[in-house]
Specification:
five-stranded antiparallel sheet; 8 strands; globular
């Protein structure tokens, strides 16, 4: 039953916040009658809410309460929450903490800034590795072969700006390693930009990414330059909290980086020039 509950809950996302029972049955590949009984059980337990007007299910309020409790339960979240609070205050943008497990990135903490127009984060959301600042941060420092395995052969296109060409994405991830900052320019949501940097643990691994998200109307070149040191400083603070040591590149990739000309413009530089 728990495995089934987990499978059903995983069907919901920020892109599909509501689902009809028929949709759920089709996605599970199960008979409608048995799925209806399951959904009623999960609804009674508070894991799902049913909207009579739309005849659709959404995640239940009990999950929101449990999520708020879980947000304070992880040592990583508790340790880095003050870092996010400072980043949100200094940048004036929504700050998030993103971790990775295998090929899945998850937003595990969010701090909002007092802005009239903010980008809403999704606690428990799964930003794509190839189209989000946090995902790029958590992928960039992996060895080339591991990155290719995690990313796969086909990159989902979310917006016209999504990078779906793997060699181009790999080049951009190399830029992230060189600069220490990842920027997603409307690649997951068209009007949303993101910026992130890695938090290193004591083993030299990127334990998490600290990111900020902001609307495209606040994504001019000057503002991007102003935010980079704020994000970098927050990541450095988080690394210090974890007793970590920043890494420049994977050992397997170090020779290739050493032969790269320091005057070669990065992908981000080229994209900036096009915008300016």
């Amino acid at each position: 039953m728990l495995a089934t509950l987990n499978t059903v809950l995983a069907l919901f996302s920020d892109r599909t916040p509501e689902l009809a029972a028929l949709d759920i049955a089709e996605r599970l590949g199960r008979p409608r009658s048995s799925v209806y009984r399951l959904l009623r059980t999960f609804e009674e337990a508070g894991f799902l809410d049913y909207d009579e007007r739309s005849s659709r299910y959404r995640l239940g309020i009990r999950l929101a309460a449990l999520g708020a409790l879980a947000q304070q339960s992880s040592p990583l979240q508790r340790a880095l929450h003050p870092v996010l609070m400072r980043l949100a205050r200094e940048s004036g943008e929504c700050a998030t903490l993103v971790v990775r497990s295998g090929a899945i990135a998850t937003t595990v903490d969010i701090v909002y800034a007092p802005q009239p127009l903010v980008v809403p984060g999704v606690l428990g959301g799964h930003p794509p590795l190839h189209a989000s600042a946090g995902g790029k941060v958590l992928t960039a420092w992996l060895a080339d072969g591991e990155r290719r395995v995690l990313l796969g052969e086909t990159l989902t296109r979310y917006t016209p700006a999504t990078i779906t060409d793997l060699p181009t994405l790999m080049e951009q991830l190399d830029d992230v390693r060189r600069t220490g900052i990842a920027i997603a320019c409307g690649e997951w949501y068209a009007d949303v930009y993101g910026m992130g940097a890695p938090v290193w643990d004591h083993t030299g691994a990127a334990a998490a990414a600290v990111t900020i998200g902001f609307p495209s109307v606040r994504a001019g070149a000057a503002r991007l330059r102003q935010r980079q040191p704020l994000v970098a400083r927050a990541a450095a603070e988080g690394t210090a909290v974890l007793g970590g040591t920043p890494r420049v590149a994977c050992e397997a990739d170090a020779p290739a980086l050493a032969t790269t000309s320091p005057h070669r413009p990065s992908t981000l530089d080229r994209r900036r020039r096009l915008r300016e």
